[in-house]
Amino acid sequence: MLFAAVAITLLSVAVPRAQQTPQLPDLSALFDKTDAMIAMRDGVKLHTEIYAPKNATEKLPLFITRTPYGLSDDDRGYSRLLFLYREMFADGYIFVVQDIRGRFGSEGTFVMQRPPRDRSKPGSIDEGTDTYDTIDWLVKNVPNNNGRAGEAGISYGG
Q: pLDDT averaged over the chain?
């Protein structure tokens, strides 16, 4: 066990830091970014960033990430969350990242693990209705989407 720890330590010292960290692409060269405030059924607007590939030759599916943790824009205004999906860039997606209700750039009140809506009350909301309303808006308003949408998330967003 000690040998393994020493070998790992020596390897990490021997490999220059630049080789340990993968080179990340310039997102502004790959995507056109659009900021939107998408209205939910109760009028609350959610901050959303839409990243459409610059060289798309066909209609593309939407790949959505909704998060309470913030979009973490870099110094050029592009969300660092996109780097979670960098292996998918070449596959052709319109990436969408969104602050959930009441967090960062979104309006409304944040409720940790909001309970499912009461279906007997018209206009009641929950994470599911916000997701549905978001997808509905995106499919109707984002150019060159193919009407298909998928969602991914970790921790709260999952």
A: 87
